[in-house]
Structure formats: C-alpha cells, structure tokens
C-alpha cells in the first residue's frame, strides 16, 4: 500500500486530513517563545485574530525528526509513501523530508514531491496521489502525474499592504518603506521555480482586483479543470470574488483558508485565485 503524507500548509483541517485518509505533517508558527503546530495547536481563526491585534508571528519548517516519527511507523507496517510538501523555494521542509528519508535509509520506498506552491495546488496534488494510490498505481506513476498537475496549476495573491511580506522576510525594509509611501498593493505568485515573488505592484486595491481578474481570465484561456480561492480573515471579500470567478469560469470555486504558516507572510486580508488548467501554458511565468 502507498500512504500519502502532506504538510499543513495545504489548507486542510485535522478533520479534513482524517476524512481524506491523508497523513498530516504540521509545520510551525512561533509567537515569542511559544511554538505552535500549524493547524493543531493554533488554527486560522485564532491566528488571524491575533495577527489583526498586532501579534507578529514567525513561521518555521517541519524538521527531519518530526518526519522520521511520521514515516517510520508507515514503513514498519510495510507500506510506501508519497509525501507532498510546500514549495522548497520558500521553506526548508522539502529538504527536511529528504534528510528524514536518508536517515531511514528508505530512498526506495518514499517519494518526496515539491508542490512548488502551497494551499489549493498542494491540496489537489495530495488528493490525486491518494486516489491513484487507492487504484493501485505505483509511486513512479503517482509522482509523474503530480508533476504534470503542478505544471498546469497557477495562483496569484493580492494583499492590502506590503507590511506582511516585510515582516515575513519577503521584502527588505527599504522596499517595504517605499511601497508603503506610495501605497502599493502587491500581487505576488509562485513562479515556475516555486518562488513567492512580486508579479505586479498596483496603486489601489480596486485596480489590483481588476488586474487579478485579468490574470484569472488569462489562466482560463488554457481551459479550466477546477478552481480555488485562498482567503484568510476576509470571508465577505472572498465570497464576492469567488462568485465572480464562478460566473466566468463556469466551475465551482473551492475556498481554501490560508494556513497560519503562510499567513505569517501574507497577512489576514490576502485573496488568492488559483486555476488548474487543461493545458500547460507555453510559458507558465506569463500565463496572463
């Protein structure tokens, strides 16, 4: 049997993991000297309430010891593993997973897959892995399918402020200061290498949302398999944008609440549409 492991940044709750039959590997957030397991010791509602109150959190990757404790019993039961992780370009969790595999000397029984994103893309990859495992597909077949799915998935995020990108270490102080002075509303995305980088810098939130709609339509031009929308602590805003997405994409939109770990970097007002396309864009870094 092949078991699927996925980290907490995919946006699923503990109950979602249990229902899906996928094993959860929590990442961490730190508040001062207190370390919380993402989605276990602290959940988005409490996290974003504190963030709005001014609490500054730091994110922390999972570590090899944690993953050895997760992987070990699965291997002892005679099973293999496909592990889908948050982008290795923004977290050391992928590297930690490889170290755990080496520690267990299980390179021939565990496959580590870098989602090159987080949230909805990672979630769809985990679900596909589980369904293929249930069908009896091999690890190699699953990894190939996940890589192909990843290349057809694109996401953009807009934030009201550069504050969180700065506090989360994604911008220098000078960049954040300049952006704040001219009131930039950044649109960021996971590029084709899995890096979380600025795609556009817009002067107003209204203009930013219009640009976000253009990007959604650009993704839709390659055909739409499914769509999701990331949100944090801004449900009414998300629902309005999600309704628009459904009206133009003609598929249901799945709402994905941004995990506490990613919330350290994007804040409580993030909005992030994601589309799984039928075709891989010729140049994924310019799907618009």
Overall mean pLDDT stands at 91
Q: What portion of the residues fall into strands of 2 or more residues?
A: 15-25%
CATH architecture descriptor text of the largest domain:
2-Layer Sandwich
Total DSSP helices: 11
Extended strand count = 13
CATH hierarchy class name of the largest domain: Alpha Beta
List low-confidence stretches. 171-182
How far is the first residue's CA from the last residue's CA? 41 Å
Structure in words:
- This protein is α/β, with parallel strands linked by helices and 288 residues long.
- The chain folds into 2 domains: 2-26 and 62-151, 3-Layer(aba) Sandwich (Rossmann fold), CATH 3.40.50; 153-286, Hypothetical Protein Tm841, Chain: A,domain 3 (2-Layer Sandwich).
- It has helices at 14-20, 44-52, 64-76, 93-104, 119-134, 139-151, 163-167, 173-181, 205-220, 235-249, 260-266, and strands spanning 2-7, 23-25, 28-31, 34-37, 58-60, 80-85, 110-114, 153-158, 185-190, 196-202, 224-231, 253-257, 271-277.
- It has a 6-stranded mixed sheet. It has a 4-stranded parallel sheet with strand order 2-1-6-7, with helices on both faces. A 3-stranded antiparallel sheet has the order 4-3-5, with helices on one face.
- It is globular, with a radius of gyration of 18 Å.
- The protein starts with a strand and ends in an 11-residue tail after the last strand.
- 47% of the residues are buried.
């Amino acid at each position: 049997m092949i078991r699927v492991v996925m980290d907490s940044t995919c946006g699923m709750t503990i109950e979602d993991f249990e229902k899906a039959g996928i094993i959860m590997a929590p990442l961490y957030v730190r508040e001062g000297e207190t370390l919380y397991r993402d989605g276990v010791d602290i959940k988005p509602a409490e996290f974003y309430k504190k963030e709005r109150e001014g609490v500054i959190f730091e994110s922390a990757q999972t570590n090899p010891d944690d993953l050895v404790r997760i992987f070990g019993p699965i291997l002892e039961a005679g099973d293999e593993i496909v592990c889908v992780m948050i982008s290795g370009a923004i977290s050391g969790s992928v590297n930690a997973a490889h170290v755990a595999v080496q520690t267990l000397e299980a390179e021939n029984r565990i496959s580590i897959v870098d989602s090159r994103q987080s949230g909805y893309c990672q979630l769809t990859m985990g679900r596909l892995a589980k369904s293929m495992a249930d069908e009896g597909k091999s690890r190699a077949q699953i990894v190939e399918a996940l890589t192909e799915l990843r290349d057809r998935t694109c996401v953009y995020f807009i934030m009201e402020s550069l504050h969180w990108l700065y506090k989360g270490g994604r911008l220098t102080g000078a960049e954040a200061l300049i952006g704040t002075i001219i009131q930039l509303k950044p649109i960021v995305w996971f590029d084709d290498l899995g890096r979380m980088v600025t795609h556009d810098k817009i002067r107003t939130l209204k203009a930013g949302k219009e640009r976000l709609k253009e990007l959604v339509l650009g993704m839709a031009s390659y055909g739409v398999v499914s769509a999701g929308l990331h949100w944090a602590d801004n449900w009414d805003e998300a629902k309005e944008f999600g309704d628009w997405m459904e009206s133009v994409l003609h598929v249901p939109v799945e709402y994905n609440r941004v995990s506490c770990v990613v919330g350290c970097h994007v804040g409580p007002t993030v909005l992030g549409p994601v589309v799984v396309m039928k075709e891989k864009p010729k140049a994924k870094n310019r799907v618009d």
